[in-house]
Amino acid sequence: MSAPDLAIFAARQSSSRGRRFKEVPPAYRGEYQRDRDRIVHSTAFRRLVYKTQVFVNHEGDLYRTRLTHSLEVSQIARTVAVALGLNEPLVEAISLAHDLGHTPFGHAGQDSLNDCMRDFGGFEHNLQSLRVVDQLEAKYANFPGLNLTFETREGILKHCSVRNAKTLGDIGKRFLERRQPGLEAQVVNIADAIAYNNHDVDDGIRAGLLTVEKLREQALFNTQYVEVRRLHPEIEDRRMVYEIIRRMINRVVTDLIDTTQATIDRLMPKSIDDVRSHDALMVSFGEVVQKEHLALKAFLMKNLYRHPQVRQMTNNAGKMVAVLFQKYMADPGEMPAEFATLALQNDEMAKARVVADYVAGMTDRYAIAEHDRLG
Ligand code: MG
């Protein structure tokens, strides 16, 4: 998007807090486009295709992976950004990077690694996403990590404990001062939730763990179900589900744009710093949709994420991650040379962090192969 289309409260290059290491500006791209491009070229990004969203990667070829999830988040977030006059390349960069720090096997992997790291500073996937782009991607000659702009890093670090925020300097400050990130970051945060709420309904039905009947208890779903049935009484089931989901996404995205635009019109922020210093988030659903959205989220928690079949898979996955962690702690030489060398010259605390970085970076199938090899 060219600068004149940007709203005054959008993130813009001219008021960017910049990169940690100074660089010559790109000739034909904006700074946020450069961030996005670096993310797409990163190793961590390519690995997302083999990482679980809800269903383990090898369970079926049609389920979402972290990669397709990230692309769906990006699509939704970019639509909202353009409608509100926000910075589209920045929103795209944050979206594509928001899950880079996820362990193999989704939340089960993350919970397990966090348990393993209890005495060594813990493990948070948002913080890990920032570690990936700030440190772990070693690709460029002149600096560690991808050297992204402050605004992209601000968006990636969605949550952070106060203890960790204290160690992060600039980027951690807002968690100590209870301030907000820019609107682009706020948009991605909600786009993430819109994407998973909807694609998990689709994946859940496909897996046979959710039924259309049961989903009709949910207002968001049922409103569209009734409408689709009325307009297309003969429609076949699979197609009906798609039609319902696309309408659900349209409904919540439209509500999000309208509600947020009204908030912006009321508060009239003059800059991204006005947005940051406001005491509440400015990007939100209206009351009705917010309620329905949260209800669907709770429904999925109860009926999908905690479904016995999903649980059995996640329990096994969690155990696998714990075994890998213990094996590498006991014998760092089992890791590739660059990790082993780092782990061996350090104290227990630093060694554990190296092992956590290594395990977190694994794809589902690589973790399974390593578990078989070491087991
Ligand atoms: Mg996500």
Task: Give the gist of this structure.
By secondary structure, the chain is mainly alpha-helical. 63% of the residues lie in helices and 0% in strands. Magnesium ion binds next to loops.
Average pLDDT reading: 94
Strand content: under 5%
Number of strands: 0
Q: Helical residue percent?
A: 55-70%
Largest pleated sheet: none
Number of helices: 19
Assembly status: single chain
Poorly predicted segments: none
* End-to-end separation: 52 Å
* Rg calculated over all Cα atoms: 21 Å
Coarse structural class:
mainly alpha
Pattern of helices and strands = HHHHHHHHHHHHHHHHHHH
Shape: globular
The set of bound ligands, ions and cofactors reads: magnesium ion
Secondary-structure blueprint of this entry?
Elements: H1 31-40, H2 43-47, H3 66-84, H4 88-97, H5 106-116, H6 125-136, H7 150-156, H8 162-165, H9 173-177, H10 183-206, H11 212-215, H12 219-231, H13 237-267, H14 272-277, H15 287-305, H16 308-330, H17 337-344, H18 348-361, H19 364-374
Residues 69, 98-99, 192 line the site of magnesium ion (MG).
Explained architecture:
The structure is a single chain. The chain is mainly α. It contains 19 helices and no strands. Helix 3 packs antiparallel against helix 4, helix 4 packs across helix 10 and helix 10 runs antiparallel to helix 13. The longest helix is centred in the C-terminal third of the chain and has 31 residues. It is globular. It starts with 30 loop residues before the first helix and ends with a helix. The mean pLDDT is 94.
